[in-house]
Design brief:
The structure is a single chain. By secondary structure, the protein is α+β, with helices and mostly antiparallel strands. The chain has three helices and seven strands. The protein has helices spanning 3-9, 58-80, 105-124, and strands at 27-30, 33-40, 42-43, 46-47, 86-97, 128-134, 143-151. The strands form two sheets. It has a five-stranded mixed β-sheet, with helices on one face. A two-stranded antiparallel sheet has the order 3-4. The radius of gyration is 15 Å and the shape is globular.
């Protein structure tokens, strides 16, 4: 099954690439690697604001991370032109806006990891990952995630 068939089956429409909010580009390709800049969680087109452990729970954080994964896929599509050219999702790095006592950043990040695995399958979608709790994310967003992917030459 193609990646696009899987996305359609999941009811996912890829968004266009968001305009960068500062002095950076949405992605950089070097050789067969594509580095996607961090994407913040958005809800109804605006930053999904909140802090895990204070105003948001783990399940809400997972939904935010899943929404980011969809945005990342839209950017990856723009970078390579065809998601079926992806040979491996190499790594996700997740920054979770959380209180000092919140310790479920890894579970929040599963919202993105699980969707990536579902879309690309167990081999291509299996990736290395880091999940950090941070004091703040740009614009007060609850989660920010960046991705590295390997693609066909």
């Amino acid at each position: 099954m193609s990646v696009y068939d899987k996305l359609q089956q999941l009811g996912i429409t890829l968004p266009p690439v968001a305009t960068p909010a500062a002095a950076y580009v949405p992605f950089v390709r070097t050789g067969n690697l594509v580095f996607l800049s961090g994407h913040i969680a958005k809800k109804d087109g605006k930053p999904w604001v909140g802090q895990l452990g204070l105003t948001l729970g783990t399940e809400e954080g997972q939904a935010a991370a899943r929404a980011i994964a969809i945005d990342l896929l839209g950017t990856l599509h723009a970078a390579v032109g065809d998601l079926n050219k992806v040979t491996r999702i190499v790594k996700l790095m997740s920054l979770v806006n959380s209180t000092p006592t919140f310790t479920e950043q890894h579970l929040v990040t599963n919202g993105a990891s699980n969707l990536i695995g579902e879309v690309f399958g167990a081999t291509i979608g299996a990736h290395a990952r880091s999940a950090f709790g941070v004091a703040q994310v740009p614009l007060g967003a609850c989660v920010e995630i960046e991705m590295i992917a390997e693609v066909q030459g």
